[in-house]
Amino acid sequence: MKKFTALLLALVMMMSLMACGGDKPAESKAPAESKEVTQSAAPAESTEPEDNKPEPITLRIGYMANYASLWGVLSTINQGFFEEEGITIELTPFNDGPSEIAAMEGGSIDLAYIGKGAHRLCILGNAVIFAPSSVHTVDKVVCMPDSGIQSVEDLKGKKIAYNAGSSSESTFNNALKVAGLTTDDVTAMSLSIDNIVPAAVSDDIDAAICWNPYSGQILQQVEGSYEIEFADGSTNISSWICLPKYAEENHDILVRFTRALFKGMDWGSKEENYDTVAQYCADETKTSLESNQLQLGDAHWFSIADITSGLSDGTIKGYYEGMQNDMVQSENIKPEEAKEDVGDFVLFDIMSEALK
Fold this sequence. Notes:
This protein has 15 helices and eleven strands. With about 350 residues, the protein is an alpha/beta fold.
């Protein structure tokens, strides 16, 4: 009986060992299954960045050959922020904002930078604003050596050159307003922007109202010429614009462009980068570094912090409201042409979405 019991126990133990041995294939399958999942997941992970890569686009940009027009877009190009958004930029120079808007209407460019004067056409519905660039608080008049002009009051009886339809005309009207004068008190000469510098060099005028680089060219080419400054509390803002139809059809493209632009502006607005940006502008416009450095004080260059806080507290909206009020006061637009809400021609939603 004892031998039989021992034999039975041995048989039970042998069967237990066989059962344990039978579990081993199941255990060996687990790592294989885990490896298979990892391998199948890998291609999905490697293709995800490719799937999320922005669709490549080329945007044709209008600009004017000065620091104020180029500082933001050139900073963005050279720092690679447009590349991050899959955007290739083609730059085309223009003499003034109205010419740029005409080019957009003709289909030769997509987006453009404008100074204050061309904002009139935005109010009238020809274009919409999707990003601010800078704001100017002081305006200037370039005076000839023997003009005797020391203040805007001295403009009375003088021959003054300006460029109609641009920020030059807005500044001219503001100067007269500050001096308590009208166009009847001066000899106003409306010239193309290309002809203002030759008029100054030929001594055909007493003063000129224009923007850089033209004002800088007069100061360099007319010995003894100088600038006087005045402030009238007006808002001299510059912006990025497109046609209303373009904005309706290309919302996402505008957000991508603006998101990159704001990054470039943030970099370019830092004082330690001023000289580098001035060199970018000098290279693009084929002008000297020094002439571009002289333009650094022309405006306050918006950073991301400026735009973020400005949208939040209404400062940015206030700039455009102030600009519109200035144009009504200077009779550049009729009161009935002014918009009750500047949001009718300023796309604050593009700015806000780009900041996200």
